[in-house]
Structure formats: C-alpha cells, structure tokens
Design brief:
Radius of gyration: 16 Å
Bound molecules: glutamine
CATH class: Alpha Beta
Structural class: alpha/beta
Helix content: 25-40%
C-alpha cells in the first residue's frame, strides 16, 4: 500500500526477494482500490498511522482490505501498518480518531517506546526465518501490549511483543525493509505462495 510511508524500501525489498526466490511477480504500489485488483498479498508500511488510516478510509482501501482479508489475503503490517492491523489502540490512537482495521486480536501502544528511544536497533531471534539474529530497526515504534484469541505472539524483544500473527496476517512493530536483510520479505512471499497453493487445490 502506497498512500503514505516508507513505500519504496518495501518495493525494493519485495523485488529483490522475488528475484532471490525466483518468483515471477510484480510489486505494485496501491493508491486506490483499482490498484488492488488481482493482488495476492499486501504490505501496509510504516509511516504515520493517523495519515495512512485517513487516506485508506477516503480512498475506500480500508473497506477493500477488510473484504480481501476475509477471503484470506496475506497481509504484512510493519510499524504504523502493525498499528492499523490491531483491534485496540491506546489513547493516542483514539484521540487522533485513527480507525483501525481490527484484523488482529491485539492491543497496541502507539509510540510505545516514548521520545527517549525514538529509534534503535535490536538483534531478534526468530527460528522460522533462520538461525542468524535479525538486526531490526525500530523507529517511533508501537509496542504490542497483548494478544488474544487466534492471534499469537510471533517475535519478542526481551519481554516485549514486537511481532504477532494470525494465520496469513502478520504484524511487526519494526522496519524489516531497512535492515538490508530480506528474510522477513522472503518469509512473507512464501506465505503468499503457500496460501495460493492451498486455495487452488
Ligand atoms: N509512530 C508512528 C505512528 O504512530 C509509526 C512509526 C513508524 O511507522 N515508523 O504512526
């Protein structure tokens, strides 16, 4: 989705990941519901959740995402995108009238690290993507406060939840597109491939 935020970094990471995995696909930038025709996965990038949400509502993308998610569309939300996937937010979310998609059973604290830790890096261990730690970049990131129902904790940084998922819906509070490490994008592309294989059976 390309209404606002760090779009080009995700596009580059997706292109390089498709090349590495020998997937014959295209990364399209979504600015309208027409752009969503025929997509097999969606990335909601980092940026300003308030602005992205406003533009998603005005363009009809918000409704379209909910419709496609119901049909099983794999979605990766990073940082602001992770906020938008959540069901519940804190007062910063409600006071800005940010309309969340509510696709993941989780609550988020917007700008959860506060001002003193605006941005930082952390080594994360996620067995699904490989043995080597992933150098994750956090920029004014949210914190996932809690998850419930079918939504599971996927990635932790010490005791904090920095990644959650429910089937094909994945939320990461950091910026996987800024690490020069394609493993999360490749993992997401494999999720897309697996889900389309299951559907076509
Ligand atoms: N703090 C931003 C927000 O609330 C998210 C930051 C980011 O995506 N890098 O929308």
């Amino acid at each position: 989705m390309a209404v606002q935020g760090d779009v080009s970094e995700h596009v580059d990471a997706l292109k390089m990941s498709m090349q590495a995995l020998k997937i014959d696909g295209t990364a399209v930038t979504v600015r309208s519901t027409e752009d969503m025709r025929g997509i097999s996965g969606l990335v909601i990038p980092g940026g300003e959740s308030t602005t992205i949400s406003r533009l998603m509502l005005a363009s009809g993308i918000h409704e379209k995402v909910l419709e496609l998610a119901k049909k099983g569309l794999p979605i990766l939300g990073t940082c602001a995108g992770a906020i938008l996937l959540a069901k519940e937010g804190d007062t910063q979310v409600s006071q800005t009238n940010t309309k969340l998609l509510g696709l993941l059973d989780m609550s988020v604290l917007r700008n959860g690290y506060g001002r003193q830790a605006d941005s930082f890096e952390a080594d994360l261990k996620i067995t699904e993507i490989g043995k080597e730690p992933f150098k994750a970049v956090f920029i004014r990131s949210p914190i996932i406060e809690k998850v419930w129902g079918d939504t599971k904790v996927w990635v932790r940084r010490q005791s904090e939840i920095v990644g959650a998922r429910k089937g094909n819906l994945i939320a990461l509070t950091f910026h996987p597109e800024l690490s020069g490490d394609l493993r999360f994008h490749m993992y997401f592309l494999k999720t897309i491939l697996d889900s389309s294989r299951i559907k076509s059976r």
